[in-house]
Design a protein that fits this description.
The complex is a heterodimer of chains A (316) and B (252).
Chain A (H helix, E strand, L loop, with lengths): L1 H9 L19 H25 L9 E2 L3 E8 L8 E5 L5 H7 L1 E9 L4 H19 L5 H23 L4 E2 L1 E7 L2 E7 L3 E6 L2 E4 L6 H10 L5 H6 L19 E2 L4 E2 L5 E5 L1 H4 L4 H8 L4 H15 L7 E8 L1
Helix pairs in contact in A: 4-5
Chain B lengths: L1 E9 L8 E8 L2 E10 L5 H19 L4 H18 L7 E2 L1 E7 L2 E7 L3 E6 L2 E5 L5 H7 L30 E5 L7 E5 L1 H4 L4 H9 L4 H18 L7 E9 L11
Antiparallel strand pairs in B: 1-11, 2-3, 3-4, 3-5, 5-6, 6-9, 7-8, 7-10, 10-11
Amino acid sequence: MDSFHRVCLWSGTVIPAAGLKKAAAYHFPWALALGGGVLALCLLACLLLFLCRRRRKSLPAPGQQNPHFAAACLHHTGSRSDQQDSYGISDLTNAALFQRKGLLAVIADGMGGLQGGAEISARIIAHFLSAFSQGNQTDDAQALLAMAAGANDAINRHLASSGHRGGSTLAAAILRPGRLFFIAVGDSRLYLLREGTLTQLNRDHTLQSALDEQAIRGEIPLSEAENEPQRAALTRYIGMGHLTAWDRNLRPLPLQPGDTVLLMTDGVFHTLDETEIASLCKGVPPQEAARRVEAAILAKRKPGQDNFTAIFIACL
Amino acid sequence: MEFVTASCCLPGCRQSNEDAVFSGSFSVGFLAIVADGLGGHGHGDAASQAVVQSIRHGFMRDGSISPEGIQRLFEDAEDAVRRKQTASCRMKSTAAILLCQGDQAVSAHMGDSRLYYFRDGRLDFCTADHSVPQMAVFAGEISRKDIPSHPDRNRVLRALGSGEVPRPDVTPLPSLGEHDAFLLCTDGFWSLLTDLEMEVDLSKSVNPSQWLGYLLTRVGRRVREDKINADNLSAIAVFCQADSPVERTLVL
């Protein structure tokens, strides 16, 4: 499972501290000198570990490219101690796979205490990558639906057997030259960037979405859509039981050269607004876009910055 | 060809609603119409409702989608609006209409209410507004997507009730296909959406009601986030379906 192995490689890469100071030499008796040396080494080890934990982050994965698409990924813990996002992308350089199945990109933002969220989102990605490379489906809409339903079944069983509570969002897409299918559950997002304008493809499964529709229809006052305390709550997610209504396109969405498809977890768009994201990505290759978006998020120094993950796919 | 519709006619953030909509299938064919009342010191609703009633009754009576038939519909609507006017209240109305007989469709409009036609999921045709910003587009000064933010967006150049012989733009649309769709809407609706958003949400929808729901969610979010004092907003979404007695199974 080569692509799954890549997912593991691309998460949690450690950056070593630059430069180590050598311990100074002191004129003490040799026992004290030995003790002092051991103490110094211990202190150095602690300093090293401290620096590594503080700077623990994931480097952007090496980009992938073929004649039709170029892709890059961004994956960062933010200022959280754990990473509960997961992501995966099929091997663009595997010409036979791409010819037969297209390109799969998938992200998931896990929820649940005690590392539960991380395991759930990782299982979802693993399910997608495995099913994608092994399946014979060439109907992309049906393939995505089957993979999503299968992932949901697997997570429901996992939660039932573990007795834990939890769940995950899901955003996935299959791209072929000139066309896109996607599926989403929860509040992770897919966007299309075209001619400098970012268009969200899926509708968030949040209470806010439902309130926005009710408010414009005049069914509730606008103030309620603005102020409802639970408005960020998810109305649908993987692991909530039987899911029948997915946010997905039934007919292909045409892609043009120059388009960029973006998948991202809410750690990105809760810190940067859509105008900022569009201007950071406009006219630059995916790896540069990933670098810029990461830098912009970190520069905001948002207290409690959530995990953030994004996949950038440029249509060539 | 059969037509499935969903519609909304909403005040937005305004105290009154001066839009009016109607859609329906008759023995003579299918009609959808949106109208946006303007001027007349807040009595634009009398104008838009007069336009809708007049065109509806005229189409039922004459059943014509010929250029002459359509001209007559608009002339009768002009008279209907004039009859509502008083010396101090010269309300007017836009109109965007879709007329279908069999697999033949015709679009006709005056003002800045629009008809969008989607063929195989892609925007194939949209009416050109009779407005100041649209003139700027024709002159190459701005692009069509700049219209919603143009300061003169509300300056409409043709409307029913103006006292002139009506000059609707009439466009026959080629043979309708089974997956064709239409969206008729007033400017309060289209000004808060892009063409791409309409296409994306169309690609996700099994029926026009779902399409309208997706679009209204986008509009509602935009109104909230950008603190927009939303105008009256109205739309009719239409899906074309082949005539078939066989029950269709929808795969969700």
